[in-house]
Amino acid sequence: MILTVDVGNSLMTCAAVDDGRVTATRNVAPAEADDALPDVLRALAPTPDAVVVSSVWPEMLERVRPMLEAAGPVRVAGRDLAIPIENATREPERVGADRLLAALAAVNRWGSPALVVDFGTAITVDAVDGDARFLGGAIAPGAGLAARTLGERTAQLVVVDVAPPASVIGRDTEEALRSGVFLGTAHLVRGLMDDMATALGGRPCRIATGGEAGRFRDHVAFDHVAPDLVLLGLWDAWAESRGTD
Fold first, then answer.
1. Cα 99 off chain centre by
2. What is the pLDDT of residues 129-160, one digit of tens each?
3. Please, which residues have CB within 8 angstroms of residue 202's CB and are 6 or more apart in sequence?
4. 2-76 — its CATH code?
5. Which residues pair with 133 in a beta bridge?
6. What pTM value is reported for the model?
7. Catalytic amino acids?
8. Do 76 and 61 form a contact (C-beta atoms < 8 A)?
9. What does 130-168 look like in DSSP terms, one character per residue?
10. Which residues pair with 18 in a beta bridge?
11. Superfamily grouping for domain 86-234
C-alpha cells in the first residue's frame, strides 16, 4: 500500500492505494494543512511503502514536505519518479505532472487514442495518440473559477453554485449565470473533444476525471468517469519504477 498526494491549486487530495485500487480518500485545504495533514495521512495508511506525490504548487509542496516525509519515504512524480508516458509536446518540462499522470492512468486502463478531461480549478482537455504519446491539449477556466470570478469581479452579479440550470434560458440573474457557467462549460468541453477527435482521427476514448467530473457526466458524453485518475497514475508510475529498480 502507498499513500498518494495530489497537491492541487485549491485542495490537496490524499488517498491510500492498494494494488492499484483507491481504498480511501481525504481532501485537505491548504489553509488547514499544518493542523490536518499529519492526522489525515496517519488515518489513511499508518505505515505506507511510500508517499507518492504530484504537485502543481511548488511552494505548497515544500511547506508540507516534512509532514509527508514523516509519513513515509517520499517520491515526487516528475522529479525523482519518472512518469512513464512519452511527452511529445514542444516544451515537455512545462507540462504539469498531473496531466501526464491522468493520461498515463487512462491509457493503462482503456488504451489509446484517448482524450482526458480533468475538471479542477482549471479544466484541461488532453490528447493521447494511438501510439500512446501525450500530445498536449487545451487549458480553460474551471466552472467554479468562472462562477467566482463573475460574482467577485462584477458589480451586479453574484457567485452561484456550479449546478445545471432549470432552463438554458435564464429567467433571472442567478439562473442566467448557472446557464452560462454550467452549460457553457459543458459545451466548451464537448467542442474541444470533438475538435481534438477530428485532429486525432478515429474515435478516441473519452475519459473525465477531477473533483467536478461527476457533475458533468449527464451533460457531456464520456466513455468513462474516473475521479481519481491522477492518484491512479501515481500508483502506476510507482509500480513501474519498482519493476525497473
1. 7
2. 999 999 999 999 998 888 888 888 887 777 88
3. 113, 130
4. 3.30.420.40
5. 86
6. 0.92
7. 98
8. yes
9. TT-EEEEEEEEE-HHHHHHHHHHHSSS-----S---S-S
10. 21
11. ATPase, nucleotide binding domain (3.30.420.40)
